[in-house]
Design a protein that fits this description.
single chain, 66 residues, mainly alpha, 4 helices, 44% helix
Amino acid sequence: MAQCNLEANKNRCTCTYEPCSRKGKCCDCITYHRKYNELPGCLFPPEVERTYDRSIARFVACNSQT
């Protein structure tokens, strides 16, 4: 199994929730958000990510705008 590069992940992480204990731990982040029927913040554009609305409906809405 591939090893996680925590520092590289932290540098690329776009999540603005600063006290997040999962920052850079992508597998933990995905597992956490999936439990709540959400998606991780990194899948949203910055202006949407900052709203902390990680719902699948919000993801679909912001990706269906053309």
